[in-house]
């Protein structure tokens, strides 16, 4: 190995110029990971719905039920992902990302035209369609990026998913800082920003996102993952400091521009520095030599082995023949085997409650703040706090669950139990408000909302295998629009409008359909949020059942097959490289 390293280093220093090293960085999997961060950091337009929903409501004269219906359309578009999963299984990731960028710009640009009055007033269903189209782009970004990264880093999936979903959760706060710098305090321009910026980022980096043959853990891989984890944490802390400062001190245009500049530096420069340093390290040079040798061995696999693998991947009979003959947890399931399992049922219940109860608060933050007497700037602070602590929940759940799993064999669903029970506290802080309680509620709900996302993705990949991961992860998300419609539209919107109409009647007025309907006071959201707390508690109990069912599985080495594959490839590569070195030595003599 020492000879390989020395020879590789000489080759690198003697023949590789600056341009070749740049090409090596761009083609490497670490730059691919950085590009994934950038794409997801701009893909969270759905998370700032609470910041621009009031502009839609005001410009179109909607009541709260109508606005919540638009929130449902957002969730429907952003989570109706099974077809997108199928697309991701039959096309390369760059195709998925480019489709998403087109839909992102088309949908949000049409919303901007509607809100600014540049087109005639559309029907409600048309606005809902525009929002659904724009929101669907996030699912394309999720499928193209997350599926690729999990397959490239299968043994680090908990940490990887935490960081990726963390950047997505932080995207709302990033967008807020950028739009304040670009456009000032103008919520209509925020819609324009989330139309063009995410689309531009996806187009710029789509070609970099690809599945690579080297997808196994290297000796220092976890250290590199921890370094990548450091970058978004610094970014989140800076944005949180800016939110606090912007609330206390009036910011000028130049101050907002300076803040946005620092955000861009922390978002782009720190991850790139880590990726370049990793590519420059001697270990990575040796890794590429071994990878090349391993690929040569893979090309020369006996046809008998290929035939067996093909038979394993494509068993005889239709896809319905083995529905109830399920493989062990951790092995590749067919789509129907996974969907009809009890584990998937428990996961769907947790997804329904985890998303539905939290998104009800997130989508209604503008109206919650208004009903409790907060100003527009303060409401935007709530939205940013939710986004930042959503990030911390995502990052820490992935990182902490990996530690708990590897060191203490704690089942990963235990994090779902924690999230659901903590969510109850956040809802009750809004129901029974005290000075500053909504700030704490924003932090709690943002954090608990963030915790569930990496866990959902990790559970799908660990319990049902990676073969149909692109489709199965999107099947889990498809329950989310139902949760949004039931809990947000039918429950929360109904009770809000009923209380608002009662207030009008008490004041001697009558509501005219087509005009804005506003509710003021603690009663506006009291009953719905108590119901949300009960749903969260029920989900926590069902997640405890999930923990009991999977505890034996998580006591085993769930990554054993990936470790064995890595050791086999490295051993084979070492033998091939040694043979090549001996052969070259004979030629030199």
From TrEMBL:
Stretches assigned to the Nodulin-like domain: 29-275
Membrane-spanning intervals of the chain: 30-50, 94-115, 166-184, 190-209, 229-249, 255-276, 414-432, 438-460, 472-496, 527-547
Membrane topology: Multi-pass membrane protein
Pfam families, alphabetized: NFD4_C, Nodulin-like
Tagged with keyword DNA-binding: no
Keyword Transmembrane: yes
Organism of derivation: Glycine soja (Wild soybean)
Keywords, comma-separated and alphabetical: Membrane, Transmembrane, Transmembrane helix
Signal peptide range in chain numbering: none
InterPro entries, sorted: MFS_trans_sf (IPR036259), NFD4_C (IPR056555), Nodulin-like (IPR010658)
Any one Gene Ontology cellular component term annotated for this protein: membrane
Predominant cellular place of this UniProt entry's protein: membrane
Protein name per Swiss-Prot or TrEMBL: Protein NUCLEAR FUSION DEFECTIVE 4
Location of the NFD4 C-terminal domain: 340-554
UniProt-annotated location(s): Membrane
């Amino acid at each position: 190995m020492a000879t390989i390293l020395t020879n590789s280093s000489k080759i690198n220093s003697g023949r590789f110029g600056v341009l070749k090293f740049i090409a090596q960085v761009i083609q490497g999997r670490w730059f691919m990971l950085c590009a994934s961060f950038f794409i997801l950091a701009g893909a969270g337009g759905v998370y700032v719905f609470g910041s621009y929903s009031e502009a839609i409501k005001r410009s179109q004269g909607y009541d709260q039920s109508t606005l919540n219906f638009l929130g449902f359309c957002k969730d429907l578009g952003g989570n109706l992902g099974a077809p997108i999963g199928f697309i991701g299984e039959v096309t390369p990731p760059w195709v998925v990302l480019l489709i998403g960028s087109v839909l992102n710009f088309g949908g949000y640009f049409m919303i901007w035209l509607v809100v600014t009055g540049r087109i005639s007033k559309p029907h409600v269903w048309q606005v809902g369609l525009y929002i659904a189209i724009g929101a669907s782009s996030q699912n394309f970004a999720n499928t193209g990026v997350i599926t690729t990264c999990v397959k490239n880093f299968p043994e680090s999936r908990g940490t990887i998913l935490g960081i990726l979903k963390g950047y997505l959760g932080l995207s709302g706060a990033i967008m807020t800082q950028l739009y304040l710098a670009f456009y000032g305090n103008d919520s209509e321009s925020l819609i324009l920003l989330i139309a063009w910026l995410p689309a531009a980022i996806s187009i710029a980096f789509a070609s970099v996102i690809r599945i690579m043959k080297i997808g196994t853990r290297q000796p220092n891989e976890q250290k590199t993952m921890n370094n990548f984890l450091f970058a978004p944490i610094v970014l989140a802390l800076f944005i949180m400091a800016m939110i606090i400062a912007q609330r206390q001190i009036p910011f000028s245009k130049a101050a907002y521009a300076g803040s946005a500049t620092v955000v861009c530096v922390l978002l782009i420069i720190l991850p790139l520095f880590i990726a370049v340093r990793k590519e420059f390290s001697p270990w990575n040079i040796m890794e590429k030599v071994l990878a090349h040798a391993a690929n040569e061995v893979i090309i020369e696999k006996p046809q008998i082995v290929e035939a067996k693998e093909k038979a394993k991947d494509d068993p005889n009979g239709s896809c319905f023949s083995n529905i109830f003959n399920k493989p062990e947890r951790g092995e590749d399931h067919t789509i129907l085997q996974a969907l009809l399992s009890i584990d998937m049922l428990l996961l769907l219940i947790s997804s329904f409650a985890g998303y539905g109860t939290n998104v009800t608060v997130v989508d209604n933050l503008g109206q919650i703040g208004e009903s409790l007497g907060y100003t527009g700037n303060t409401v935007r602070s709530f939205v940013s706090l939710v986004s930042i602590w959503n990030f911390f929940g995502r990052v820490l759940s992935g990182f902490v669950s990996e530690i708990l799993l590897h060191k203490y064999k704690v089942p990963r669903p235990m994090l779902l139990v924690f999230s659901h029970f903590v969510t109850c506290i956040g809802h009750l802080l809004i129901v029974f408000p005290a000075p500053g309680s909504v700030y704490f509620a924003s932090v709690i709900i943002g954090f608990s909302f963030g915790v569930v996302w990496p866990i959902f993705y990790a559970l799908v990949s660990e319990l049902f295998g990676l073969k149909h991961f692109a489709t199965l992860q999107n099947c889990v998300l498809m329950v989310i629009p139902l949760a949004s419609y039931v809990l947000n539209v039918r429950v929360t919107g109904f009770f809000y409008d009923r209380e608002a109409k009662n207030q009008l009647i008490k004041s001697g007025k009558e509501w005219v359909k087509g005009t804005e309907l506003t509710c003021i006071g603690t009663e506006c959201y009291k009953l719905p949020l108590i119901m949300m707390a009960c749903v969260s508690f029920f989900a926590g109990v069902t997640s405890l059942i999930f923990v009991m069912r999977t505890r034996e599985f998580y006591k085993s080495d769930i990554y054993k097959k990936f470790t064995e594959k890595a050791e086999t490839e490295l051993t084979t590569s070492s033998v091939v490289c040694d043979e090549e070195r001996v052969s070259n030595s004979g030629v030199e003599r």
